[in-house]
Amino acid sequence: MALTKDEVAHIARLARLGLTDGEIERFRAQLSQILDYFQELRRIDTEDVPPTAHSLPLQNVTAPDEVRPSLPVEEVLANAPLREDDYFRVRKVLE
Amino acid sequence: MRRELSSRELTEAVLARIRAVEDRVRSYVTLTEELALEQAARADERIARGEAGPLTGIPMALKDVIVTRGIRTTCSSRMLEHFVPPYDATVTRRLAEAGAVLLGKTNMDEFAMGSSTENSAFFPTYNPWDLERVPGGSSGGSAAAVAAGEAVYALGSDTGGSIRQPAALCGVTGLKPTYGLVSRYGLVAFASSLDQIGPLTRDVEDAALVLGAIAGHDPADSTSAPVEVPDYRQFLQPGLEGVRVGVPREYFVEGMDPAVRASVEEAVRELERLGASVDWDVSLPSTPYALSVYYIIAPSEASSNLARYDGVKYGYAYQEGGGMWENMEQTRGRGFGDEVKRRIMLGTYALSAGYYDAYYVKALRVRTLIRREFEEAFQRYDVLVTPTSPTAAFKIGERVEDPLAMYLSDVCTLPVNIAGIPGLSVPCGFAGGLPVGLQILARPFDEGSLLRVGYAYQQATDWHRRRPPL
């Protein structure tokens, strides 16, 4: 399962990970090896086996719709890299 | 022999121990000495009022993946190096209410991804039994702190073995509860369907006490189970008459250290002497596939969970780029270490168009098979026992360049998270002077059986009382 450099760059872009050329080459080799290992799963017949996404059979957990205090704004924004008034500031998305 | 001492005396003694050994062991990312002394003083007042519980005034440590309001929580990552949480995790709050004394936050593999604590962005932690070896991971700081006497107990988190494997490698007791028993609110997410918080302690009795304090339903975690929490001390009784033990052969893997095997087999014979009936030839045939299943599911969930680190709300932010996308890519490229990036890549690939069914959904189907085999086995046995890890502690640097070899150190612990069942590791001997762990598994929410078997074993053996020669 040899990945190409372009495939690795494509995955990095999907994940918004800025990788160096050296990292792309290293991950290409390592991920190819790991994906090879995963091929063993093909040997198992899972035709009639349903998937399990979660081991605890809880569904539609709801909470009462009531007003509760939210996180303290100053403590939250103290961690913000860029702030403007009570908002997170982001760089321009569209030029 | 009985000696009464105040929380202040105990806390000062543990802080003195930290000062004596910490430069060699390096368990802690952050020490909270002043807070610890304040909490110890408050605990002593509470004790004087006659309102103390079993954990009141006892100094402990939290893995640095559990958020603490006002105390930086790093996940041993550059990404969160200066992050100060605006709230407490539910376990942090519950322990504070029980009167616990917080000594500090322990080192770990970055974002809990790893098996050796070498993936910490800051520094490795050293195994107190042999300072040239790893303490295991990812809760290596918590395990080393308890083993070295730098904390009476610690909390860790376990996604694929991250409590049990370091507990085994450091010679302490480690418990991963059933998925859903302990709230994950305030546990920085790695793989949400697998993560669980649990205690690392000196013995099973302490594990029962800490579990009792942190377990229970929490409305803040929608995956928290609405179950009654028993007083776990009721399970601490000697003797194992009537207990049915199964030994699944697939856990004695190729490449296993023969000395580890011998220790584990001797431990099973001890359970037999204590009155348990043992079936030495149980089979869980899907076990060998757990490694692949885990390394598809966990990175897939991680790639989604770690999307939140975008340099906007908190954490490291690269600001020098031309626009938002470039800054975001550089933030993530520079803020995450190698293993985290590798897993985000792996998970993104497994979830991407064209590969989703072949990898992710396939892994979820095999997950069903692994879970079913446990369910069937637990119709015949009360507990299953296995090695916790196929080898004792390995040398620092030995496996860092080979991700697959590192992943293999968790083969005995991964299936447990995949199925969501509880697992306990207790010290059961030594291999080449290094501690070996016995893993005990039970049905969902049957922590009582784990504690019963572990306690009876520790009443009959003294492996858990051995201390490293630091």
Major sheet: arrangement of strands of chain A: 1-2
Shape verdict of chain A: flat
Shape type of chain B: globular
The end-to-end distance of chain A, rounded to whole angstroms, is 40 Å
Strand content of chain A: under 5%
Q: How many beta strands in the DSSP annotation of chain B? A: 11
Tell me the helix content of chain A: 25-40%
Rg estimate of chain A, integer Å: 22 Å
Strand order of the largest sheet of chain B: 1-3-2-4-6-5-10-11-9-7-8
H and E order of chain A: HHHEE
**Low-pLDDT windows of residues of chain A:** none
The total strand number of chain A stands at 2
Characterize the quaternary organization of these chains. heterodimer
Going by helix content, strand content and strand pairing, the class of chain A is mainly alpha
Report the major sheet of chain A.
2 strands, antiparallel
Structure commentary:
The complex is a heterodimer of chains A (95) and B (470). With 95 residues, chain A is mostly helical. The relative contact order of chain A is 0.08. Chain B is α/β, with parallel strands linked by helices and 470 residues long. The relative contact order of chain B is 0.14. Chain B is globular and about 70 Å long. Chain B contains 14 helices and 11 strands. In chain B, 38% of the residues lie in helices and 13% in strands. In chain B, α8 crosses α11. The model of chain B has no long low-confidence stretch (mean pLDDT 97). Classes of the chains: A mainly alpha (95), B alpha/beta (470). The interface between A and B is large, with 50 and 70 residues.
Per-chain topology:
The complex is a heterodimer of chains A (95) and B (470).
Chain A: H1 5-14, H2 21-38, H3 73-77, E1 83-84, E2 87-88
Antiparallel strand pairs in A: 1-2
Chain B: H1 7-25, E1 28-31, H2 33-48, E2 59-63, H3 90-97, E3 101-106, H4 140-147, E4 153-157, H5 164-170, E5 173-176, E6 197-201, H6 204-214, E7 244-248, H7 258-273, E8 277-282, H8 290-305, H9 324-335, H10 338-351, H11 356-380, E9 383-387, H12 403-407, H13 414-419, E10 423-431, E11 434-442, H14 447-460
Parallel strand pairs in B: 2-3, 2-4, 7-8, 7-9
Antiparallel strand pairs in B: 1-3, 4-6, 5-6, 5-10, 9-11, 10-11
